[in-house]
Amino acid sequence: MKYSGITDKVAIVTGAGEGIGYAIAEILAKAGAKVVLNDIDSKKAASAAQKINDEYPNSCSFFAGDVSDVAVINALVDFSLHNFGKLNFIVPNAGITLFGDFLEFTPDSFQKVIELNLKGAFFLAQRAAKEIIKQGDRGSMVFMSSQVGIQAYQHLTAYGMTKAALRMMAKNLAYVLGKHQITANTVAPGATLTERTAKEQPDYEGIWSKLNPNERVGMPEDVAKTVLFLLSEEATHINGQTIPVDGGWTVGGKYPEDLV
């Protein structure tokens, strides 16, 4: 199905140099949007944007920077407005996962998780909302939660807290911004095979194919397709909701230790 309301709209996708963020940027470009791709790694951001433009010419610009910094967020939005004249969609995908025993987790590690996962999403949403309201156009925001923002997981207390908080932020923004025709929803990816997860866990695909009820690991495109739908005209009456994209893990999956 081809979704409407995407063509010629302008979207910011953070943390999009690879993985889920890249897949979201790519599918938006394919659907006809103008995409501003952000990543903290300038080389990765430039390469990702070039790859998308090779397939969908003049669809993607990149802006490198750490979006846990509000000054960077403002510069990113200014860049988008300067280049495309408007802003319609944001997908604050940038995030950090830090594993650690709750009893030993340090204030420094806690602050890093909070700064990027929550502060970055909050202030990008705030600035974007102001611009969309000023334009008088409809807008959509899709936040990136996680299966561990729904269900507890070993050594991910701080990370899980932030991902649960994003779900609540979307609910609050739906209430606050709905009258401005801005929707705010959340997707909660499950175990997804990306460049990062493949490095972190040997046989990631094999393990999670056994743990997920549908017997396969998630792919970035699974998440990207859901985000595209939530940004589209077809989803304008969906607001404040969380959609798990996890193969059913949060309703009946197993943990890695269950395989031992």
Task: Give a verbal description of the structure.
The model has no long low-confidence stretch (mean pLDDT 96). By secondary structure, the protein is an alpha/beta fold. Helix 3 packs parallel to helix 4 (107-135) and helix 4 (107-135) packs parallel to helix 5. Helices cover 47% and strands 14% of the residues. It has a 7-stranded parallel β-sheet with strand order 3-2-1-4-5-6-7, sandwiched between helices. The chain has 9 helices and 7 strands, in the order E-H-E-H-E-H-E-H-E-H-E-H-H-H-E-H. It has helices at 19-30, 42-55, 70-84, 107-135, 157-177, 195-200, 204-211, 220-231, 249-252; strands at residues 10-13, 34-39, 60-64, 89-91, 139-144, 182-189, 242-245. The chain starts with 9 loop residues before the first strand and ends in an 8-residue tail after the last helix. The longest helix is centred in the middle third of the chain and has 29 residues, at 107-135.
Query: Biggest β-sheet, characterized?
Result: 7 strands, parallel
Q: Report the span from N to C terminus.
A: 42 Å
By DSSP, the count of extended strands is 7
Q: Kindly state the percentage of residues in helix.
A: 40-55%
Rg over C-alpha atoms, rounded to the nearest angstrom: 18 Å
* Mean pLDDT reading: 96
Q: How many helical elements?
A: 9
Beta-strand content bin: 5-15%
Shape: globular
Spatial arrangement of strands, main beta sheet = 3-2-1-4-5-6-7
Structural category is alpha/beta
Low-confidence stretches: none
Order of helices and strands: EHEHEHEHEHEHHHEH
